[in-house]
Design brief:
alpha/beta, two-stranded parallel sheet, globular, single chain
Length: 252
């Protein structure tokens, strides 16, 4: 599993990039994990819609995978649907956290405006302010995946491929919207990397944090995890049942 190290780092290479800057005073938007219970439970939101907003030529490859991963852990008896919309973001160079948030809220609606929970996954052209970051969660309902950087992250001889990296990055950021790891709760399981808060210490988890490196060309075999491990799932089950208390929830 150590062969993941040079590739999985691409999922998120800095804490500031992975989670964005906190918006503690914006109750409507919240921070990563702030709508975890809204997804995991069905008390108010019986349905969920995942909006994929993408620039022309940046169509996401992991839409069904992300839907499947969320369906497996969230209680949505009314179902989870995908809304895929080509969007002109009018930014094609460098993106800040505020740029991502502004683009999402300019092109999307209230995350909690009905009995349907809405999450937004943006796929813009251009790169994040830290070009080593491939994905970022900027509030409780919003992530962005930077496919230009993902394409550059493809390994030697196409191993891992840019599609493999994109799938892993997208599920990873979805995991942060679910509050993983320990973002809005405290796990009874010792699986958070003490040196990289918010990430798993298990190389088989999509939430794993690896040593930073830009030499991904050395990674030519193996595969990237795109699934939550048993510890991640145990945390999500505990949050859903109320066994694990959650903080910072926009609704609970």
């Amino acid at each position: 599993m150590s062969k993941y190290l040079l590739a999985i780092l691409l999922i998120t290479s800095s804490m500031s990039g992975c989670f964005g800057d906190a918006l503690s005073n914006d109750e409507r938007r919240g921070t990563a994990g702030g709508l975890a219970l809204a997804c995991l439970q069905d008390d108010k939101f019986e349905k969920m819609e995942i909006h994929f907003l993408y620039e022309n030529g940046y169509d996401p490859v992991a839409k069904e995978l992300v839907k499947n991963r969320i369906q497996n852990v969230c209680n949505k008896p009314g179902g989870i649907t995908i809304n895929s919309v080509e969007t002109d973001f009018s930014i094609d160079t460098v993106w800040s956290d505020d740029d991502v948030r502004d683009a999402r809220w300019e092109n999307g609606g209230d995350a909690m405006g009905s009995d349907t929970l809405h999450w937004y996954f943006l796929f813009p052209s251009g790169k994040y302010t830290d070009e080593s970051v491939l994905g970022v969660a900027v509030d409780a309902s919003t992530i962005a995946i930077f496919k230009d950087s993902v394409d550059e992250a493809e390994g030697l001889f196409g191993r891992p491929s840019n599609e493999e990296v994109e799938r892993a990055v997208t599920v990873h950021e979805a995991g942060h919207l679910l509050g993983l790891v320990n973002l809005v709760y405290e796990s009874p399981i010792s699986h958070e990397d003490p040196n990289h808060p918010g990430h798993s210490n298990n190389e088989d988890s999509v939430m794993y944090w690896a040593i930073e490196s830009n030499d991904v060309g050395n990674f030519i075999s193996g595969s990237l995890p795109d699934e939550f491990d048993d510890d991640d799932k145990s945390d999500l089950e505990g949050m859903a049942s109320g066994e694990l208390k959650c903080s910072g929830q926009l609704w609970s």
